[in-house]
Amino acid sequence: MSSRATVAGDARLRLFLALELPDDVEKALADWSERSLRGGRLVSSLHVTLAFLGSQPRAMLEPILDLLRREAGATPPFLLEPVRYRETRSVGMVVLADPSGAATSLAERLHTGLEQLEVYEREHRPWLPHVTVLRFRERPLLAPSLPAIAAFAPSGAAAFLSRLHPSGARYEVLESCSLGNGESGG
User: What gap in Å lies between CA 79 and CA 46, rounded to an integer?
Assistant: First the structure.
């Protein structure tokens, strides 16, 4: 577990929880995006969002981090694998297969715990493991081949601070946790 960003003095924090990508996977995805995707703004911080919490009181940060630590620790290491490119009305993404179901289980446990903390409202659609790689105002209708990335194990789970800027959101890791460190889940 490691902490990186500081939030002293912030009354409210824009937060999300995500799986971190290994450096080589993040670099390969960024290189692929630069070569293959046009018609939008490339995403500079690549991750697999587990839950977007939006603006939260700073006082809720520690309970959220405790939940993340506990559930990440209770999740055995697993593999994710790129399976297709998909566009929604505002983003392009690489959808990932979760053959063991461990990532989906982690997301579900986090959603339940965050709901119990009253800091999250579950989406009506099922959680989809993916990496957002492109943002746009008008859908470019791209059909790129998949990046040449083999199945990979996320390097950890993290709580991120999202700071809005005119050029787009900037993400800072507040705390990073290892997966499967033996703590029991909730």
Answer: 17
**Which domains are assigned to the chain?**
2-6+13-177 (3.90.1140.10)
pTM for the whole structure:
0.90
The rounded distance, in Å, linking the Cα atoms of 26 and 39 is: 21
Show the CA angle centred on residue 100, arms to residues 63 and 67, nearest 5°.
5
Question: Would you list the DSSP string of the chain?
Answer: -EE----TT-SEEEEEEEEEPPHHHHHHHHHHHHHH--SSEEPSS-EEEEEEEEEEEGGGHHHHHHHHHHHHHTSPP--BEEEEEEE-SSEEEEEEE-TTSHHHHHHHHHHHHHHHTTS----SSPP--EEEEEE-SS-----PPPPS---B---EEEEEEEE--TT--EEEEEEEE-S-SSPPP-
- Residue 127 near residue 18 (C-beta atoms within 8 A): no
Phi first, then psi: give them for residue 150, nearest 5 degrees: -75, 170
Give residue-wise pLDDT tens across range 84-141.
Answer: 999 999 999 999 999 999 999 999 999 999 999 999 999 999 999 999 999 999 999 9
